[in-house]
Amino acid sequence: MATKKRFKLKSDAEKKLKIIGIIIGIIIVLFIFYRSNINDLKKIGYSEKASKNILLKFKKKEIIHLGKNKTLNRAFESSDYIDKNFTSYSKIKYQNHKNIIKNINKLLKIGYSNEEISLILSRGNDKDVNEFTKRKKVRYLEEFFSVSYSKLRNYDRYISYMNNSREDEETSVLYVNLDMDKENYKDAKKIEDFSYTMLVNKHHKLEKDFVPKDLKTVSTDYAREKGIKANINAISQAKKMIDDAKKDDKNIIINSAYRSYEDQEDIVNTYRELYGDSYIEKYVLLPGYSEHQTGLGIDFGSTDSKIFIQSDEYKWMEENCYKYGFIHRFKSNYEEITGVKNESWHYRYVGKKAAKYIYENDITLEEYYIKFIEK
């Protein structure tokens, strides 16, 4: 009897071990199958976390069909994922915003289309979009935000400017981004970083202690008087331009270049005493708002004519200055945008690439800055 009992116990133990082995085998097979599915999703660009949630929500087939999609990846990583919005997530252009999925959900609930949401996300940062979700559905969204350099946070200003000025949407976007809906010199943006395409005007201000990089004194072979300074690269290209002009019998000279904040202050005070505030308002920029302080603004003249705009040198420069990285900064047909009366003598070094584009497209530095630099 004892032998039979031992045999039975052994048989039961073997059965249990066999069952455990089968279970372990099944677990291993399931794990291999699970990891295989995870790897399939990771291969096409989904994260580990997103891949796990895709499997849990039984969406692998749809995801494989759609392929890599950054917005969907973020959706499946997010606790804000809503299954009924799956198709919208797949069609909305991705932006690297912290709360992109939460904000997409809010915008869909308000009633925006997938295309409109893509525009909204592309025209602001995470904070801008979050603020925008707090308002009711707006009009003229596509008209304003189809402009590539439009800003979500400026929507109300665009509407106000368009209504008051009767300008079209694109012009309203440009002018508002340039702060032309504000008073001159009011709430000006502080410019701290030096660059060849930096914008200094009645809405973009330099601090009193701003000194540009690489100032160098201009040789009197190229300047009207001693002590004139400018940016070293601006000087180099100006000298080359003057030399090349001379080959065409055109005699160009530098009359003025870098002026400090204090220098501009002295000029303003002198003209104010002579002609009054109205003259300053029309013709002289206040300290901090003159691009002469950048070392990139240069006033040119002719040694053969007292009136530069009537000289052959002026005509030559109008046709050739861009080749050396200069633009005629203040033209009469640009006054509304630049806020400065025509100055035939004032040229600005912006570098050859920017100068060529500005010349060929007949635009201002303001427009170039908004379209390509600030954006």
Brief write-up:
This protein is an alpha+beta fold and 375 residues long. Helix content is 52%, strand content 9%. The longest helix is centred in the N-terminal third of the chain and has 42 residues, at 2-43.
Write a structural description.
By secondary structure, this protein is an alpha+beta fold. Among the domains are: 2-32; 189-374, 2-Layer Sandwich (Muramoyl-pentapeptide Carboxypeptidase, domain 2), CATH 3.30.1380.10. The chain is 52% helix and 9% strand. It is built from 18 helices and 8 strands. The chain has helices at residues 2-43, 48-56, 60-66, 70-77, 86-91, 100-110, 114-122, 126-132, 141-145, 155-165, 169-177, 232-247, 261-275, 277-283, 312-320, 335-338, 352-361, 365-374; strands spanning 189-191, 204-206, 215-217, 229-231, 252-256, 297-302, 326-330, 343-349. The strands form 3 sheets. The protein has a 4-stranded antiparallel sheet with strand order 5-6-8-7. The chain has a two-stranded parallel sheet with strand order 1-2. Strands 3-4 form a two-stranded antiparallel sheet. Helix 1 (2-43) crosses helix 2 (48-56) and helix 13 (261-275) crosses helix 14. The longest helix is centred in the N-terminal third of the chain and has 42 residues, at 2-43. The radius of gyration is 33 Å and the shape is elongated. The model has no long low-confidence stretch (mean pLDDT 93).
Secondary-structure map:
Layout: H1 2-43, H2 48-56, H3 60-66, H4 70-77, H5 86-91, H6 100-110, H7 114-122, H8 126-132, H9 141-145, H10 155-165, H11 169-177, E1 189-191, E2 204-206, E3 215-217, E4 229-231, H12 232-247, E5 252-256, H13 261-275, H14 277-283, E6 297-302, H15 312-320, E7 326-330, H16 335-338, E8 343-349, H17 352-361, H18 365-374
Parallel strand pairs: 1-2
Antiparallel strand pairs: 3-4, 5-6, 6-8, 7-8
